[in-house]
Amino acid sequence: MATIRLDAFSQDTIVLHFGGPEGAIDAYTLANALIGFADTAYAVNAAIDPGQEIEIIVEATGPGSYRTVLRKLRKGFTGGVLSGIAGTILWNVVSNVIYDATLKGADPKPQIIINTTEVIIKHGSDTIIVPRVVHDATENVKKNPAVQEGVRKTFDSLEADTHVKEFGITGGISDPRPLISIPRSEFRFVVTPIVELEEQPLERIRKERARLIILKAWLNHARRKWSFEWNGVPLSAPVADKEFLDKLDRREHLLGSGDALDVEITYRQRFEAALGVYVNDSASFVVSRVIRPVPREMQKRL
Fold this sequence. Notes:
The chain has seven helices and 15 strands. The chain is an alpha+beta fold and 302 residues long. It has two domains: 3-191, no CATH class; 203-301, CATH 2.40.50. Strand 3 and strand 4 (66-75) form a beta hairpin. Helix 1 (27-48) packs antiparallel against helix 4 (145-160). The two termini are 25 Å apart. 32% of the residues are buried.
């Protein structure tokens, strides 16, 4: 039984593993697979970090059976508020998009457990742990037509070459085994259409549980926006839970900067047709219910 953590690609490089004859791969297969993979990465980057251009280059090759190192380079800096965190999770999201596509044919279906900070996927004898921010970004981009086309192009070329027995993704060129390994028998699940595209509503309301780190609080009933940090990203939102605010008035809860709240948060998303994804409306976040306060000391223990 293997436990795979999809938070291992925080650097600018990623390694693609092509299982087959030792140290060799057909030039056309390699070229087309790299183009498809790069197209996927460009499309994911455009969705999670709009405005920040990147360039992807082949940096090195190595054995095992054949491996290629890809490096992401930033072109200038025009990203927005999410640019910092988006830049660190790009390869994690790309890897998760591809892994998610292979699960279409899984029998039995994988068990998925969604927690506040991570998502646990139990598939056969494997347990895959995905950071919540990576999971949410994956869900937001995997229906993007450009992302789908890039993934399909990658696996079309691999399936056409009978010498390729597996495709893998890993963090280091000297890793004994790739972190993610997709056997040839699962290529067919990826090359079929990933989803049937449906007409998307222009807006939708989302509600989810989250842990918010308090940066600045308003300890009264004024509908002012508190300052939080959510998965490393700054967030401003009013607290609309009257019962919780009453407890603050009675000093049943004592809060300070660095403490956290486990909450239900509601926000609006708008569909960006050009990107094929929903984009959060940063002005619409509201803490609709406070589940419990989490002091700094308790966060360390958790």
